[in-house]
Design goal:
Length: about 425
């Protein structure tokens, strides 16, 4: 449990630092108004991503663990020219391993995977700054950027966990940026399609609400169809149906989610692990996302996208039995920049608790042997199991709270 204690200690320090920034928020905002955006973001990234990386892996000499081992296996083999899905297993989209492989060519070490994740997180933050900039002052945006970098849900999951979920947000905002600059829906659609090939299969879920609101639907679909057909034409002759490997992730049972929380109270009779729950989860998450998009159809695209994104992927985090709390990294940027009211102490407090729980629970649950509770008595079998179950209930409840915050209660203009 040493990794759990370490993550807990780091998370508490991060939250203390965030609280100090919020305490001096007005003064800091005014001071940052006159500073260079590039300088502030660069220095913040160096202090809160690069230096923690150097301290953890180069000075302390710790070795990357957990998901990094899987990423390293993919990236190292891809860098040697092996074929994804045929020569090595991958739960990710086909270009993911090869993109990591480019960086591995520069430094053939698992630590390079972590550094790559930190770089991509910095790029996602930079694009997000410009994405949300029209709504707020420069100082306010820079304060939120620093808060994002400091929250444990991003710092720990990026530097210690080397999670890649923020990549999906990067590609969807990059696609919007390309459309805004070129006024061409084709570039917007093409970048979305490339993002799907670079990240995870679940990235495709955002396509449906975006398609519903798209006025130029044919021009939107053509680039996606061309890239999709071309990808299959390349993949199928090489790997056959093995390109369906990413869909196997849906069969993996994880926690916390609604099923893992209610299962013991139904004496393991709800069919945990069955495909039925995957379809129910997809229907709920995509359905709520589409409803949110429709209610926000007259709102600014940036507002619509950030709210729909949170509703979609936060809901997926608690209704899909293969999702787990690391998914906070997927929607933390729009949550910080758009949804949270930084003058509301209740929202801030709950965000702090949410970050803390989402960071430490996966490691705690894993080291308990990934328990699946069958009866109410199982949750009380030991103090560790009770703590785990209470964390699961809290994460599910808090996720529901932030979905409620993001969900448009009525038609927005």
């Amino acid at each position: 449990m040493s990794i759990v204690i370490a993550k807990l200690a780091i998370s508490l320090l991060c939250l203390l630092g965030t609280a100090l920034i919020l305490f001096k928020k007005e003064t800091l905002t005014r001071w940052l108004e006159g500073k260079s955006v590039t300088t502030v973001l660069s220095v913040s990234w160096i202090l809160l991503r690069l230096l923690p990386f150097i301290a953890t892996y180069l000075i302390a000499g710790l070795q990357p663990t957990s998901d990094v081992n899987g990423f390293w296996d993919e990236a190292s083999k891809a860098s040697q020219g092996q074929a994804v899905y045929r020569d090595f297993w991958s739960p990710y989209s086909p270009l993911y391993a090869y993109f990591l492989g480019i960086f591995v060519k520069l430094w053939y070490d698992p630590k390079m995977i972590v550094l790559t994740m930190a770089i991509m997180d910095g790029v996602a933050l930079l694009i997000s700054y410009h994405f949300f900039r029209p709504f707020q002052s420069k100082g306010a945006m820079l304060v939120k950027s620093i808060i994002y970098l400091l929250l444990p849900g991003s710092l720990v999951l990026c530097v210690i966990g080397a999670q890649e979920d923020v990549w999906m947000w990067l590609f969807v905002t990059l696609a919007y940026w390309a459309r805004e600059r070129t006024l061409r829906v084709e570039w917007y659609a093409a970048i979305l399609a490339i993002g799907l090939l670079m990240t995870k299969a679940i990235f495709i879920l955002i396509f449906l609400p975006l398609f519903i609101l798209e006025k130029e639907k044919i021009r939107f679909l053509i680039p996606i169809a061309i890239i999709g057909v071309a990808s299959l034409a390349i993949l199928y002759p090489i790997v056959g149906w093995e390109f369906m490997q990413p869909l196997d992730e849906a069969k993996t049972l994880r926690a916390p989610n609604i099923q893992s929380v209610i299962n013991p109270w139904f004496l393991n009779n709800i069919g945990v692990g069955e495909k039925f729950w995957n379809w129910v989860g997809l229907t709920i998450s995509v359905g709520l996302a589409c409803l949110s998009a429709w209610r926000l159809r007259n709102a600014d695209f940036r507002v619509m996208l950030s709210r729909v994104w949170i509703v979609l992927y936060a809901t997926m985090m608690i209704v899909q039995q293969s999702a787990y709390s690391n998914y906070i990294f997927l929607f933390l940027i729009p949550l910080v920049f758009d949804v949270i009211n930084w003058k509301n102490k209740t929202q801030i407090s709950l965000l702090f608790i949410f970050n803390l729980l989402c960071v430490i629970h996966p490691s705690f649950w894993w080291r308990l042997g990934m328990p699946c509770y069958m009866t109410p008595g199982d949750t009380f079998a030991s103090s560790d199991l009770l703590i785990d179950y209470l964390m699961q209930v809290s994460i599910v409840g808090l996720t529901g709270y932030f979905i409620w915050l993001a969900f448009p209660k009525k038609l927005a203009v």
